[in-house]
Amino acid sequence: MAVLNVKAFKKAKCWHISIFSKNKYLEIRNDLLHRCR
Fold it and tell me: Rounded to two decimals, what is the model's pTM?
């Protein structure tokens, strides 16, 4: 479930990032993490 589009990510709340944090996919989207944090 690590496949999500940018629009879907924006729709998801910051806490959603926590779930992806375990996946390496988060590393690529690190930019969004910083923005959410």
Answer: 0.18
Each residue's pLDDT tens digit, 1-25 = 455 566 666 665 555 555 555 555 5
Please, are residues 14 and 36 in contact by the beta-carbon 8 Å criterion?
yes
C-alpha to C-alpha distance for 14 and 34, rounded to whole angstroms? 10
- 3-state DSSP of 18-35: HHHHCCCHHHHCHHHHHH
Distance (Å, whole) CA 11 – CA 29:
15
User: Residue for token digits 């479930």?
Assistant: 1
